[in-house]
TrEMBL record:
InterPro entries associated with the record: RelE/ParE_toxin, RelE/ParE_toxin_dom_sf
Name listed for the protein in its UniProt record: ParE-like toxin of type II ParDE toxin-antitoxin system
Highest taxon in the source lineage: Bacteria
High-level lineage: Bacteria, Pseudomonadati, Bacteroidota, Flavobacteriia, Flavobacteriales
UniProt entry keywords in alphabetical sequence: Toxin-antitoxin system
């Protein structure tokens, strides 16, 4: 499957990277997040339902990663062979 990001999710991802770079004074943790996201994208492309929980409220799947520190919410469009990441969040943020 192809993995795509909607605009809001991508912006939240970049904002998170910027936050951690500024907070830590280096880009090292941001690189760790980027690598974890890349790995997650590969996993979603192969097995989008593995380890996913479905939110009936949002009608989206969610996956926590990087030891539960971050979460993505996504939709699987089987007929189009696409996974669309709708939200990227820190697990410390108020839930959707």
């Amino acid at each position: 499957m192809e993995v795509r990001w909607n605009t809001e999710a991508k912006q939240d991802f970049f904002n998170t990277l910027d936050y951690w770079e500024e907070h830590n004074g280096s880009f090292e943790y941001s690189l760790k997040i980027m690598q974890a996201v890349k790995t997650l994208e590969l996993e979603l492309a192969e097995t989008p339902y593995f380890l996913a929980k479905y939110s009936n409220k949002l009608k989206l799947y969610r996956r926590h990663f990087l030891k539960g520190k971050f979460v993505i919410y996504y939709d699987v469009l089987e007929e189009q062979n696409v996974v669309i990441i709708q939200f990227f969040r820190s697990s410390k943020q108020k839930p959707l």
